[in-house]
Design goal:
alpha+beta, Rossmann fold, seven-stranded mixed sheet, two-stranded antiparallel sheet, 13 strands, about 15% helix, globular, serine-type carboxypeptidase activity, Peptidase S10, serine carboxypeptidase, Alpha/Beta hydrolase fold protein
Length: about 170
């Protein structure tokens, strides 16, 4: 059985009603000039039977026109790689300052080449499959197959879009 997800745009944001805005990060001097959002501090998005699999994510809104810019679900290579690597070293809003530390952690600065800064897209950095990065499970669902991982990712996208967006058509 195969499934796919199709998105229709434009999207409309629900009054910026997100789970938790990240306001500071170790290594960044002061409040962040952007507000990445995560479900991690209040709850993860649960998927699977009894929502036993808890999916961790960061959402960063495009600095262009978020209602019209596409939504990208970014999955890291793996197995088991957290998307924090992409967030800090690839396409994310920050980069480290080599050799500079603040309170013992690498200093961060805004990355002018970030995909959100370049106004290319809204991005969800998703720690999937189960047991990748900060995602976890409360049952034996942790042993994932490709089909189960795809199903859980599709369920995450449906639940995420209902909590953040309206007007985004998701078809299975």
């Amino acid at each position: 059985m195969s499934s796919h997800i199709e998105f229709s745009f434009p999207i409309e944001f629900h009054n910026k009603h997100y789970e938790t805005f990240v306001e500071t990060l170790p290594g960044y001097p002061g409040p962040l000039p952007i507000k990445p959002e995560t479900g991690a501090n209040t709850r993860y998005i649960g998927v699977g039977e009894d929502e036993a699999v808890k999916i961790f994510y960061f959402f960063v809104e495009s600095e262009g026109n978020p209602e019209d810019d596409p939504l990208i679900i970014w999955l890291a290579g793996g197995p088991g790689c957290t998307n924090l690597h992409a967030f800090f070293f690839e396409i994310g809003p920050f980069k480290t300052k080599k050799g500079i530390f603040i309170d013992g952690v690498p200093a961060l600065q805004m990355d002018p080449n970030s995909w959100t800064k370049l106004k290319l897209a809204n991005i969800v950095y998703l720690d999937a499959p189960t047991l990748t990065g900060y995602s976890y499970t409360t049952t034996d669902e942790s042993y994932s197959s490709d089909a189960l991982s795809a199903s859980q990712t599709a369920e995450f996208v449906r639940k995420f879009e209902h909590s953040v967006f309206s007007g985004l058509d998701v078809e299975e």
